[in-house]
Amino acid sequence: MPALPSRSQVLSLYRQFIRNANNFSNYNYRNYFLRKAKTSFRQNKTLEDVTELNEAWNKAQRELGVLKRQSVISQMYTFDKLVVEPLQSSHDKRRH
Q1: Per-residue pLDDT tens digits of the chain, which is 96 residues long
Q2: CA distance linking residue 71 with residue 82, whole number of Å
């Protein structure tokens, strides 16, 4: 039986989800994946069964791979800003 992931591994995986979700150029996709990551990690926080933990860990790693590929593809296309998206001032753009 494989070893359970450590707390630091889980937090690292969570940060990777957030980082890759933020790479989406489309506002709706970006917010969807951010919400999905936060919700799924919160739901799995209470898992105690070793089998369920391993399944959740493996599933999250597979989903991260898909998310990475999709975020790269998303960056290949440009989208107009939506009305709900905050606009960056010229001062904010210089800092990034």
Answers
A1: 567 888 899 999 999 999 999 999 888 999 999 999 999 999 999 988 999 999 999 999 999 999 999 999 888 887 777 777 776 655 555 554
A2: 18
